[in-house]
Amino acid sequence: MGVLFLFRSFDGTRLHYDKKGNGQPFYFFHPPGVGAAIFREQGSLAEKRKVVALNARGHGMSELGDQPITMEQWAADTYALAKHEKDDRMIVCGYSQGSLGALAFANRYPERTAGVVLIGGFPFADTWLLKQGLRTGTWASALHWKPLIALALSRVHTKDKTTRRMIAASVKSVQANALKRWFELGQEADYRESLDNLSAPLMLIYGKRDPYAKAYQSDFYCRANQVPVQSVYIDGVGHQVPTKRSNELNAVLAQFARKAGD
Description:
GO molecular function, one term: hydrolase activity
Number of domains: 1
CATH topology: Rossmann fold
Number of helices: 9
Distance between the termini: 22 Å
GO cellular component, one term: membrane
Strand order of the largest sheet: 1-2-4-3-5-6-7-8
Radius of gyration: 16 Å
Largest sheet: 8 strands, mixed
Order of helices and strands: EEEEHEHEHHHHEHEHH
Keywords: Hydrolase
CATH architecture: 3-Layer(aba) Sandwich
Protein name: Alpha/beta hydrolase
CATH class: Alpha Beta
């Protein structure tokens, strides 16, 4: 997406992130394995804005550190990065399981959150299909089947050979026990009760054919009572919106940013 950077988080752990552009910042949260590479196509937003994608602990060149991996830790790492980058307020964007990281950040650091965008997002994994997907990831990681996971995740997301290589390389960079833990967190984390604490506008973006996440809209509309909530459906795609419908997604993100305020 942009130039690769390293910094040290709150506990001294060295973390790795992509950064491109200037202006109002977007901070992206990725699903397990695929890392910041999944947001390669969002680099075009940097023509007018700053685009930042942190590789969560254990991904790419990000170290694991010596503390247990949690969503709250991911939020704290992102806060440390924002301070490092001198970004006071940002729009946090979570894709798939990355939505849990974005919600963790918005809940813990409302003063830093200008808006929340969830792409195929959910506050808690309680549908059979989504739980099965996360369990499959956990099981395959425990069996050290990273090459198979890398092949599956890279091919389901894109036909672009460069992006496929980057996604596959990201998956292979994660230690099997860390990858297993990230998939487990997707089954454990629950931000339903915190939705009524959101203080920034919320946008939900779904592919019209998304079999995993569309059913979760009712949770957001019922529970996020203090902020405006908007849904956008993107034609011709299922769950993999950032890679398969990047132009449409980027246009929606730019429009949301204008409404959230520059």
